[in-house]
Amino acid sequence: MSDTYDRLAQLLTAKFDVPAQAIGPEATLHDLGLDSLAVVELFVHVDQEWNIPVDEDEAEPEQTVHQVAAYVDACAVRQGPRTI
């Protein structure tokens, strides 16, 4: 899996108490026990973790972990390279 996927899985485990063995690419956020409010909170954490703007309106419980990781990667690409 990608670095983004691995970091997302760690975030789900650390912040939402999702058991690591439950996380898989095709598991939906709903399957992992996240309701709509928790999914929005996840996107807030993603924004902070990756320091990229994400659209919380895109947050849907039926998204898979793989889809969220791909979305984060797409947001990072749109942002472009970071400058210090």
Could you please describe the fold and organization of this structure?
The mean pLDDT is 90. The chain has helices at 3-16, 36-50, 65-79. It is globular and about 35 Å long. By secondary structure, it is an all-alpha fold. The N and C termini lie far apart (28 Å). Helix 1 packs across helix 2 and helix 1 (3-16) packs across helix 3. It contains 3 helices and no strands. Helices cover 52% and strands 0% of the residues.
General shape: globular
Main sheet: strands, sense, barrel: none
Q: How does the helix and strand content classify structurally?
A: mainly alpha
Indicate the proportion of strand residues. under 5%
Rg from C-alpha positions?
12 Å
Low-confidence stretches: none
What pattern of helices and strands is seen along the backbone?
Answer: HHH
Number of distinct helices: 3
What percent of the residues sit in helical stretches (DSSP H or I)?
40-55%
List strands and helices in order, with pairings.
Elements: H1 3-16, H2 36-50, H3 65-79
List keywords for this structure.
84 residues, mainly alpha, globular
